[in-house]
Amino acid sequence: MNNPEVIIPVLGIMCGIIVPLGVFVWLYLESKDKNKTILEISKNIDDPSKLEDLVGLLDERKKEPIDYRRSGVVTLSVGIGLFLFGVFFLGAILKGVGALVAAIGVGQIIAGYLYPNTSEEITNAVDAFEKK
Q1: Could you report the per-residue pLDDT of 74-88, keeping only the tens digit for each?
Q2: With contact defined as beta carbons under 8 Å apart, do 82 and 101 qualify?
Q3: Mind listing the pLDDT tens digit for each residue in 94-117?
């Protein structure tokens, strides 16, 4: 370990291990406290409907489906940016990566129009199908 050329790769490997482990521990501790809070509050609530409302409030998951059109526009923009960065600065490899990311964005936009995601869009699609 006296060789200074070895220190940087070792630190890089250690960061690659320590950062994900730190994130997993942080997420575990965060959810553990939330579960303890729900358990303590549920001991004091007698009405099951209030308990269901409480769990619904503490649930952080999105209730709405993913909007593929919005994420597709963001991905397409990133792909175009990478492509232009490759054109002006870094060359052919980054042009290819940018084109690939842009193609993924276009695919997401198309998927957003093929698969309606909100209840209003689904209702409109069903009504249009029933009229045929």
Answers
A1: 999 999 998 998 888
A2: yes
A3: 888 999 999 999 998 888 888 766
Contact 72, 108 (CB under 8 A): yes
Instruction: Give the pTM.
Output: 0.47
Residue 110's Cβ-side half-sphere holds a number of Cα atoms within 13 Å equal to 6
Distance between start and end Cα atoms, the chain: 76
For residue 89, give every residue at least 6 positions away whose Cβ sits within 8 Å of its Cβ, in sequence order, or none: none
CB under 8 Å to 73, separation ≥6 — which residues?
A: 105, 109
